Amino acid sequence: MTDAVIIPFPMRTPAARDQDNLAQALESLRTALEAQRSALSDWRFAMTELGIGVAGLGHSLASYQQNLGDVEDRLVGLRETAGRLEAWADGALEGKA
């Protein structure tokens, strides 16, 4: 055993490099949080636009329902008129027979 060979153990990374890695990780986290805030803001805007669209649709449907009610009222009046005309025609036919 004349000459021993010493194998050095790997050195731990210096604290400065650890700090750089931590700073880089924190910057990535900040970037991700900002992207999430932006996405949430966009989502809220889209929900607001959707709400406006749904409200407009509700107004349109209410107007359509009112128009259908008006048509129904006119049809009832026409049915009554048709019934009176039918009764008059029946009476006229019976009087001539």
Unreliable runs: none
Number of helices: 1
Q: In sequence order, what are the helices and strands, one letter per element?
A: H
- Roughly what percent helix? over 70%
Summarize the main sheet: none
Please state the structural category.
Answer: mainly alpha
Shape: rod-shaped
The Rg value, from CA coordinates, equals: 43 Å
Please give the alpha-carbon distance between the first and last residues.
Answer: 146 Å
The averaged pLDDT comes out at 91
**Record field, number of beta strands:** 0
The proportion of residues in beta strands is under 5%
Could you describe the 3D structure shown?
This protein is mainly α and 97 residues long. It has one helix and no strands. It is rod-shaped and about 145 Å long.
Structural topology:
Layout: H1 15-96
Overview features:
single chain; 97 residues; mainly alpha; 85% helix; rod-shaped
Please provide a brief summary of the model:
The protein is mainly alpha-helical.
